[in-house]
Structure formats: structure tokens, C-alpha cells
Amino acid sequence: MRFTSLKQLSDLCEQEGATIGRMMVVEQARETGQSEERIVAQMASYYEVMKEAVRKGLHDDTRSRSGLTGGDAKRVRESALSGVRPPSLGGEASAALAYALAVSEVNASMGRVIATPTAGSCGIIPGVFVSSQERFVWDDETLVQGLFAAGAIGYVIANNSFVSGAEGGCQAEVGSAIGMAAGALTEMRGGTPEQAMHAVGLALKNSLGLICDPVGGLVEIPCIVRNGFGAVTALAAADMALAGVRSAIPSDEVIGVMLEVGSAMPEKHRETAKGGLAQTPTGRKIMKELYGKEGKS
Predict the structure, then answer these.
(1) Region annotation Disordered: residue ranges (predicted)?
(2) Whole-prediction pTM value?
(3) Which of 15, 74, 249, 270 is the least buried, fewest Cβ under 10 Å from its Cβ?
């Protein structure tokens, strides 16, 4: 890739008069030797999987094998559509929340998802993308280009910090997905590459320090609800960036801080289930019910 930072990516887009998504297609074709058509077709197939995961999570049984999670996406969506109590978020953000939960529940129930950038954070981008497509009546091509934009952002984060909870905590997993979704949505809504980068910085700053503490060692509690909250955060970051709000700390520096914080994070807070929510009295009880023994810190 001809870019290793978000600043370089933004500058490259400006120099060549291209969107982030378009630039990523060109760079990937150049690096892999594959045709742009084949690369775009592959990404389009990924988006189909995302849409199907949203549908499945809203309409099928998503009870996980552990029995700990499932059905919350349906509850949130049905409540929003019932008219009994209008969602505090409003219909559009509520849809993003429900769709993100839906995909995460499909993942927990051993369904098919796309890791964006990981399975543990797989609901955020589909939640934001599918709900936005419905709201703004975008064609699939727009969303596919958005996925390339998200991929470019994720590429920079992965190569300068972390994207896995085991390495850098949930800030790296869910946080990265929020930044990817926020930047891509900013671009799809007509924002400049520079505005998209500010959206990434704004999103990542709000996720710094988030630990990875899966109850029972499973990607269910609190992972699924964090995906739901993450989708809403991505919408907020995109709106701020499009309104002209800037990240006072450059996004690349925020990524550097995520690396610093993740490296300093205790092992028990990095996907080991030895700390955080996993070691609360209820967390230990769940561990004992699942495995016949309590987890120890």
C-alpha cells in the first residue's frame, strides 16, 4: 500500500481526486495483481453475508449454545416498531442498534458473519451500513465502496496498533470497528477524506481504555451489547465530523495512544476472562454453571 497512516491516505486521496473507497480498490488491485472487478465482486459478496446476518438475527432463533444470549435484537426492533414507546434514539439509530445486536447474536449462535475487523466486533459495520442503506435508499454499490473505505481505515489501525481484544483490549476490537464504520459512513454521506479521518479520531477517542472481559470466556457478554452501543457511537462520530467537528488530536496520534494503552493493559483485561465483568460474583457463577468451576483471577 502507498499509505501507512490515515494522514497519508487522506493526502493521497486529495492528490488523486479519489474517495477512500476508490483508493483502496486501486491499491488492493495493484498489490494483489487481481482485477478491480474481481476485488469489488468479492467485497460485494461479503456485503451480502452481512445483510443476511442482519435478517437472520432479526427473524431466526439466535439463542447461543451456552444459552446466555439471543433474542435481544428482536426485542429492541419490535419495541421500536410497536409504537407503544418510541425509542429514545429515534427510529434510525434504533435500527442501527438492533441490526448490530442481530449480527453479533448470529455470531454467538455459530452463524455466518464477516469479521469486521474481528468476529467479536462483527455487528458494528453491518448495523451502521444496512440501517443507513435503508434510510438513505443507497444502492449496494455505495455500500460496497463504503466497505473498501472501512477496510482502508482498518488496514492503518491494524498496522499501527491492534484490532484484537487479546492484544489490546476491547478498545482495539470494538473501538477499531467503530472508527472504521464512522469514517466510512462519513464518506458515504458526502464527507471529504479529511472529514472521514476526523470521524475516526473522534470515534477512537471515545473507546480508549475499554477492556476485554468476556464472561465465561465467550464472545457474548458483554461483547454483543458493546456492538450495539458501538453502532450508535459510529453514527454520532460521523455526524460530528460532517458538521465540521474536528479531532483535536490527529487520528494517527489517537491510534498511537490506543497502542500505548493496550500495551499497558493488564493481561487479565485482555480477553482472558480473568478480570473485569468475568470476575464479578455473577460472572464467576456463570463460569461455574458452564464449566463446573469458578474462574480465578
Answers:
(1) 58-85
(2) 0.96
(3) 15
